[in-house]
From TrEMBL:
This is GAF domain-containing protein. SUPFAM superfamilies: GAF domain-like. It comes from the Bacteria. Belongs to the free Met sulfoxide reductase family. GO terms for molecular function: L-methionine-(R)-S-oxide reductase activity. GO terms for cellular component: cytosol.
């Protein structure tokens, strides 16, 4: 895909349909969960315009621990009651924030991030509960209100695909 920075291609469903196909194809071609997550972050970082961080936080010992990511050095551990990642994890739903500086308990890992979207990930074929939570997919942007409803819908499908296709370790905790 060839992207032009002056055109916001993420405002159409075709963009996300193509990105979904790319992620799906890659996940089908690799069976190691760490390699899968690592290259999915690279793919999202390469293809999503106006982002400055994308990665996974994985649930371990009742906290979120940084996993594969692309961007500046990140917060290593996030309590479940802190930040957008903690809120998405405990509320078991996607959280989109137009201005992270107005989000209660926001954790500022990178002062250049102004908006954020976080998707919880669950073990496949399991009801969404804290016991089935694997972690979250976190995407930050240096632009206020970067993520639209179209972004949320498209990326939510990709997060669900990741939950279903990644070859997660058999243990209920990573």
């Amino acid at each position: 895909m060839n992207f032009h920075p002056a055109i916001d291609i993420t405002k159409n469903d075709e963009y996300y349909d193509n990105l979904y196909k790319m992620v799906n194809s890659y996940l089908d071609s690799e069976n190691d969960w760490l390699a899968q997550l690592s290259n999915v972050t690279a793919l999202l970082n390469e293809t999503l315009p106006q982002i400055n961080w994308v990665g996974f936080y994985l649930l371990k010992d009742n906290q979120l621990i940084v996993g594969p990511f692309q961007g500046k050095m990140a917060c290593t551990r996030i309590a479940l009651d802190k930040g957008v990642c903690g809120a998405a994890a405990t509320q078991l739903k996607t959280i989109r924030v137009d201005n992270v500086h107005k989000f209660e308990n926001h954790i500022s890992c990178d002062s250049a991030s102004f908006s954020e979207i976080v998707f919880p990930l669950f073990y496949p074929n399991k009801k969404a509960t804290l016991e089935t939570l694997i972690g979250v997919l976190d995407i930050d942007s240096p632009v206020f209100a970067r993520f639209s409803e179209t972004d949320e819908k498209g990326l939510e499908k990709i997060a669900l695909l990741i939950s279903e296709k990644v070859k997660w370790p058999n243990s209920p905790t990573l």
